[in-house]
Amino acid sequence: MMLTVLAVTPIIGALLVACWPGASGNPRLVKVLALAVSLITLVLAIVVAAQFDAAEGGYQFVEQREWIPAIGAHYALGLNGIGLTLVMLTTILSPIVILAAWGDRLPNPARTHTYFAWMLALEGLAIGVFAATDVFLFYLLFEATLVPLYFLIGAHGGVGRSYAAVKFLIYNLVGGLLMLASIVGLYALTTRAGESSFLHSELIGLDISAGTEKLLFLGFFIAFAVKAPMWPLHTWLPDAAASSTPSTAVLMVSIVDKIGTFAMIRWCLEIFPGASQWASPVVMVLAVISILYGALLAIGQDDIRRLIAFTSVSHFGFIVLGIFAFTTLSTSGATLYMFNHGLSTAVLFLVTGMLIARRGSASISEFGGVQKIAPVLAGILLIGGLSSLSLPGLAPFISEFMVLAGTFTVSIPLAVIAAFGIILAAVYILLMYKRTMTGPLRPGLDGIRELDGREFTALAPAVVLIIALGFVPGPLLSVINPSVEPVIAQVGAEDPVPPHPVDAASEGAHE
Amino acid sequence: MTEYITLSFLLFTIGAVGVLVRRNAIVVFMCVELMLNATNLAFVSFARQHGNLDGQTAAFFVMVVAAAEVVIGLAIIVSIYRTRRSTSVDEANLLKA
Amino acid sequence: MLELSWLLIAIPLAGAALLLVWGKGADRFGHLIATAASAAAFVLGLIMFVELIGRGADDRSVTTSLGTWFEAGRFHVEFAFTFDQLSSLFVLLITGVGTLIHVYSIGYMAHDARRRRFFAYLNLFVAAMLTLVLAADYLVLFLGWEGVGLASFLLIGFWQHKETAAAAANKAFIMNRVGDLGMVIALMTMFATFGTTSIAAVNGAIDSASGSTATALGLLLLVGACGKSAQVPLQAWLLDAMEGPTPVSALIHAATMVTAGVYLVVRSAGIYDASEIARTVVVIVGLVTLLVGAWIGCAKDDIKKVLAGSTMSQIGYMMLAAGLGPAGYAFAIFHLLTHGFFKANMFLGAGSVMHAMDDDVDMRHYGALRRAMPITFVTFGLGYLAIIGFPGMSGFFSKDKIIEAALGYNTWIGLAAMIGAGVTAFYMTRLMMMTFFGEKRWRDEVHPHESPSVMTIPLIVLAAASVLGGALYLGGWITDWLEPIAGHAEHPHLPVPVIVVQLGVMAVVALGVAAGVWLYRRDVPDRAAADADVSIVTRAGRHEIYTNEVNGALVVLPVRYLTRLLVWLDARGIDGTVTGTADRIGEASQQLRRTQTGYVRSYALGIFGGALLVVLGLLAVTLA
Amino acid sequence: MTTFWVLAPIMVIAAMGLILARKAVHAALCLAVVMISLAVLYAVQDAPFLFAVQIIVYTGAIMMLFLFVLMLVGVDRSDSLVESIKGQRLAAAVVGILFAVTLSIGVGQVVVSSTIGLDQANADGNVEGLAALLFTRYVIAFEFTAALMITAVLGAMVLAHRERLVTPRSQTDLQKQRMRDYAEQGRHPGNPPTPGVFALHNAVDTPALLPDGTTAEESVPESLRQRGQERQGLDDSAVQDRLREIGPDEDEEDADR
């Protein structure tokens, strides 16, 4: 029941926010209400995390009920370490995002309550996606997340919002349709094998012929590659990010896009291990292209939000690379990367969003010298940027290194080429920082305010987490590792043994 | 038996073609009635073939519905005629953007 | 006590965090907190050093682990620190010189509104640098490595309102990232080969791996070292880094951070011992940088850039020594320490001069400052004597040893190093002559004055260290001390007796000094000759032998064009395909729209046709 | 069977007449023929009740309604047979023929079992048999048809009813309006000309000719004009033609000279 409560709480909250009498005339009430709901959800998530037995590894808090017996669909929820990580990310980011969204200038202020309601609805649906262990339920929730995002972008975004929203929707619907076709295929297979079922546990053991498996795998994978987004299916992201509010962008990139990479692990790797092995070389090459391509395009952007969107393309490349390298190290790293990237991108999007709101323009060339009058804002931007370029001591470094090191044991050339991303990351982040924050103050920027208390409160938890996880990632990894190991075993891969292993414990610990 | 059904189909097709080619709403309407009658004939014939009265019952219901439909249809034609002074179905092409 | 090495790092780190988080409230006393933190780390380091000396020779490496940093699969990183002979020396250098520079900065930055921030960054740097030298695992070392890079970035760009400072900071960070790429690949190679990145484990197990692995590791680490230590070909950032406040140049870009590459090579002695090729490349890199640095030092008029060129050159000596293997490791560290003293001394002296000259850095505007700033002059002069290797000064011992070792390795390399010593003497003499001797060339509104005692006391202490640093070599102490890490150094087999070498070096140095004095004995014009009027050698030196241009043409421009091309391709190619498809569908729909005439009879025809199709379909199914 | 073979051609011809007749009234009469013939076919097929209903409901009520509406909207008017939608007629013909052919082929497949006949079902009488079905198995549907009929009646009333939206204008108002129009637009304040004043055609559907030879549209009664039943084109040339038919006009010839 715990998971249902967790997922339904924000959705009830969304209904409350949307329907609260007089909500449309009282934005402040709406904001407080939404924040309260998201905080309650966070508390619930912490309760779940506290009860989670990290060492056990398998699915916990399992709920399973018959839903549509005719096709064998179940209402089945359960969390493993990977799911828990992403649920925590969702519940941690939601209050941050909602608090940061308080000051958003919406195209139609009278609809503020729907803005916050959609955010909460998205939170609830995302939790459901991460917890679903029935592929039919997963698919429904996966597609349902498009609805809130569509409205968040299309109704509450900025310039070009309807174009971006439609582009986002069509891209993701096309991916979703391919996945639906694969799900129908799975249904046919299970029906033929005996009893129709969509349950993850049933599908894992399913006997699929190699050709069919590849086709079904592709249906799933393309849907997730669009979501993730991977080169060359990425072009919806920059538009969507540039046309939405910062909070929407965070929800989209930090949470919803993670569904893609998360689902690659849960559905592609576990259900189609053979096909995953088959596709892995191509996917890894695509991932490396994403890394470099995203980074190079980020360098060439003038719109800050598009820049961050392209950095995300690059980072998602790392995540996918880690997943498809099939080593415990890289896949754990990829999972950790999802969490860390969520945090660092949230900080970047929100803090630049605050900057953009102050200036009324997202063009880098319109800024300059802001550091002088808003040092705290500049500092947080720098920390966010440094985490994005994976500076050791900040959370993303560990995950990026894990991904690279794990990949290196599988393919040296790919890991080395991908590592060039770390140079490009420095270029795009530091150029952006330099052009916006340093140098003489540009005329017209005199009115830029320092972060106010609310904004600082919204950003501080994420910044603290980024720094803390840079030094103490242990708690997260202890949850992730036991869940990743069975995945790697299911794929049938084994961690390569170093040719000249050293027993680190005995060597390193001599006094 | 086959000949009754064939006649029914023939009448139905003629009715349908009439709907397609005539522009006077009243005539179009009459063609629709012809189509309904054609189906009734099929119903009655099938009733005889199967040896029960369900077909005739169906034909009866069709007649009832047809009567109701004619009442409403003609009322609509009259009211359209009142506003547009025409009974041509081509004039009512507001569906076109 | 020796298990407290983490505390060494924690103290300045806490200082930095405190100053940054406290905010404006700490403006009045922030610098004192930072200085106290640095001093406390020094005291703790000193106590630990004394304890280490008290221990037996084979019991001088203490590793303490704070626990696991992260682990997954076969990978496991301990957050562990090693306090041993090598790191203890570095701890003392970093905290000692660091504390002096903190003290100096109190005076130097007194009028800067953001002084608290400056001290926070300095403390951050000290913490990161200590992490670097204390790390027991290459990954922890990399943490410190990047930490000092960050501190360097923040401090070079400290005066962010200057475009040049911000650009220099970016350049430093990005060029270092190129080096870091080598480091990261080295780390991955270590993991893939040995399943660990522990320094002790990797260096211990390197013999079991193939020679090519050792060579690869050696070269990759060298790439990292080149980036951090401003060695050719990644040296271009160091001269620009002089945009930072002078104490930063002294601490980070002279005494400590830039020598991290040398530390890395010495720390990875096991790896380099296993690969002749890697060592040779280190020697070549060191030698080339040595000469290039000296060359640049001769041509610049900016006092800080001369010193920066000199730093490059001196680190080149250290690299050269480190590349010689066990014969040179100890001398590399020895020179590193003495250089840390005298170069910090001279940078601070230069800062003192600039302070007096209203932040003018052009030596052509100086002249005859010896009377106006006697303490600065004397301390700077002692540093000068040390760097040129005046007999008895610290530099004399450390540099001589390197040249001897180089001669023992290869006569030509030794001779080249010797010539480098002569050139060093020349450009340092030039600097002395232009700054402190000759006629006054400063403008009348400038009133040179001696700096306050908070700045001169560190100068005096460092000058004393520059003079006395050679004491470390008394009785070969430093080679013995480092032997467990660096291996036993054989006495080099020289073609000529040692005394001949020493006399030869002295002769070359004397020549360099004489040339400097002769050329700049009279007044120097207060404006440099135009590029066209000087020899091609001078011109190249002024332009830092055109490395910026080369980098620009080979890296920056191609990347910029590639970026533009990709932006265009993304919009036209990939997104163009997508939007193009959408447009085609839209056009097709426009065509199809024509069928929607709005005539009800058309729709009826459609219905009828559809019915026909359904019937046909049904028939087809039944008949089939 | 004789009845069928006699009636079937008549019905097909009448049906063709329905879609080919220019005038709606003719079409309605054709339809009536089809319906009555159908009624006979029902009778032949042991459906006396439906025979009666067909005559009463269709031929009696529905056809009357059709004719009623036809009278209302103009009985004389014949439709233009020129097709306005390109290809509509051809397409309709092709689809229709294909449809008929396909269905006829289909019938051969469907109607295979022999005819049972209704003798047994009609043992208690056709009406009783139908009644038994209607009031047992189909009673709910039957009730719904009742509801449908009521709704239809109400619907027809709502649709055909015209609410008076403005108070009717009195003679005084009309007169005032007429004078205002005269003042503002110069419209003739007197009665409109009567139709056919230059009695070339002795009918109310002929517009009057004005002195300059043009026609006065408003001379034709409005209801005729709305139905589009006024005679067109009594323009100058038509007048001349008519005059020539009547006989040479001396004045005209004088003028020519």
TrEMBL record, chain B:
InterPro entries per UniProt: NADH_UbQ_OxRdtase_chain4L/K, NUOK/Mnh_C1-like
Catalysed transformations (reactions): a quinone + NADH + 5 H(+)(in) = a quinol + NAD(+) + 4 H(+)(out)
One Pfam family per UniProt: Oxidored_q2
Gene Ontology annotations of biological process type: ATP synthesis coupled electron transport
Record-level GO cellular component terms: NADH dehydrogenase complex; plasma membrane
The enzyme's E.C. designation: 7.1.1.-
TM ranges: 6-21, 26-46, 58-81
GO molecular function list: NADH dehydrogenase (quinone) (non-electrogenic) activity; quinone binding
UniProt keyword annotations, A-Z: Cell membrane, Membrane, NAD, Oxidoreductase, Quinone, Translocase, Transmembrane, Transmembrane helix, Transport
Subcellular location: Cell membrane; Membrane
Membrane topology: Multi-pass membrane protein
Enzyme category, top tier: translocase
Function: NDH-1 shuttles electrons from NADH, via FMN and iron-sulfur (Fe-S) centers, to quinones in the respiratory chain. The immediate electron acceptor for the enzyme in this species is believed to be a menaquinone. Couples the redox reaction to proton translocation (for every two electrons transferred, four hydrogen ions are translocated across the cytoplasmic membrane), and thus conserves the redox energy in a proton gradient.
Subunit note: NDH-1 is composed of 14 different subunits. Subunits NuoA, H, J, K, L, M, N constitute the membrane sector of the complex.
Family: Belongs to the complex I subunit 4L family.
Name this polypeptide is given: NADH-quinone oxidoreductase subunit K
Organism: Aeromicrobium piscarium
